[in-house]
Protein: 3-hydroxyisobutyrate dehydrogenase
Organism: Pseudarthrobacter sulfonivorans
Amino acid sequence: MPEQTTVAFLGLGHMGGPMAVNLVRAGYTVAGFDVVPAALDAAQTHGVPTVASPLDAIAGADVVLTMFPSGQHVLDAYRGADGQPGLLAEAKPGTMFLDCSTINVDEAREASALAIAAGHRAVDAPVSGGVVGAEAGTLTFMVGGETEDFEAVRPLLEVMGKRVVHCGGHGGGQAAKICNNLILGVSMIAVSEAFVLGEKLGLTHQALFDVASNASGQCWALTTNCPVPGPVPTSPANRDYQPGFAGALMAKDLRLALNALESTGVAARLGPLASEIYDTFAAEGGAGRDFSGIITDIRDKSQH
Ligand code: NAD
């Protein structure tokens, strides 16, 4: 997909804004749009050409890239809602619909099927790496779709990310994303419970870290995002749990994982529990804190 490709970039929020900036810097022709005027203004200030409506954005676009909060936003935009025309009906035939939002696997498959039925191409490509990765162009993209469509969007994704992985057919990118974050949510709760138990049993944080980080308890939640201050100086615990990866986003991703666990009938017990734990954490003040702040909840709710 050459740099003269024209990209309609819809959704210029925390992630979409800096991703669009990187496409512009790489020489892509970008027409940016967001329903929130402040997001539009911010993107414009950072050099992203913006337009006044989604239809202006998709006029002549080769790629329609969406970076929205949820699957409902994506499906509404594709199909049209609230009297607004749908993007699928208005885009030129053969347009590549590239959705980078994190949404349900079933919604991603539906969105792709709708796009293909309307004569277009479709790929789901959710990301990990957060706002820092979006700004630095170091995101990881997990891509679902046909091989030739993956190869078509790969150069564009490589501008915004450092790793681009083809995970399979439609919905495969979303599947990989929620499976990874299911591991992450459960492992962060386990690491946090272990540290609070260690406190009760008289272990120092450093002693437990030195053992577990070199033993079979080793994992990213421990060695990179350690939920106690000290052992890993760069972890959010050292800055009063400023995210990082916010509790609200972990709660969202675990709800998506829960939906997939239910629809596939997996006999999972920890996933649903982790989803419930992070929903409570987000509702009780943790939404804007790093998800490793779950340890303070566990400590506060412990007896003695
Ligand atoms: P955000 O809420 O900051 O941005 C989403 C933007 O989409 C908003 O500005 C909103 O106004 C806009 N929008 C909604 N409907 C629209 C429409 N029909 N047309 C145009 N614009 C529309 O969210 P974000 O943090 O940028 O996250 C975007 C997606 O990326 C989410 O699905 C999120 O789960 C995922 N994600 C976020 C992070 C993160 O760290 N923020 C990390 C990985 C993945």
